[in-house]
Each structure stands twice: as structure tokens, then as C-alpha cells.
Amino acid sequence: FLPSPGKITRFHAPGGFGVRWESHIYSGYTVPPYYDSMIGKLITYGETRDVAIARMKNALAELIIDGIKTNVELQMKIMSDENFQHG
Q1: Which residues form the Biotin carboxylation domain (predicted)?
Q2: How far apart are CA 81 and CA 84, in angstroms?
């Protein structure tokens, strides 16, 4: 993925049991043009793969990063893919 520099105009991190968000970004943060394209990491876990995937889908739906391009939509498509869900 290519970097997407710019100002993050709105940000909300997902949370809850089994959800972890790791990042340094915030609303108003300016992503510089020369950076590692991974500005954050979203991790979920659960008792089963199905539970972890369901938590990831909920967390992705809760995550808000406005002002720059992200791969959140792609990640949601991956989580919804039947081949991925069945491992």
C-alpha cells in the first residue's frame, strides 16, 4: 500500500473485550509524506476463529480515520470472505 500523507480530521479507536488498537495517531495528527505506511495495528482475539473474526468486523466498523486513505474497507472485505472465514 502506498503512503497516504495528510491530516487526520477525525479519529476514533475501537475498543472492548478482545480488541486492541496500537498506534500513535489522533484527531489533528498530520501524517508526514515519508513514513512507514502502517500507521496503526488492530488486533482481535477470541475463544474461536469465528469469535475473533466477528470482533474484528465490529472493531473495523467502529474504527474512524478520516482525512487520509486507509485499507479498512479492504480488511472488512477480507473478514467477510467465506474462504477466509473457513481458514
Answers
A1: 1-87
A2: 5
Query: pTM higher than 0.90, yes or no?
Result: yes
Residue range of the domain that includes 18? 6-85
Give SS3 for 59.
Answer: helix
The string of pLDDT tens digits covering residues 63-74 is 999 999 999 999
Distance of alpha carbon 49 from alpha carbon 63, whole angstroms: 21
1 domain-assigned: no
Q: Nearest-CA neighbor of 82 among 60, 50, 47, 42?
A: 50
Pairwise CA distance, residues 12 & 15, whole Å: 9
Q: Evaluate whether residue 69 is within a structural domain.
A: yes
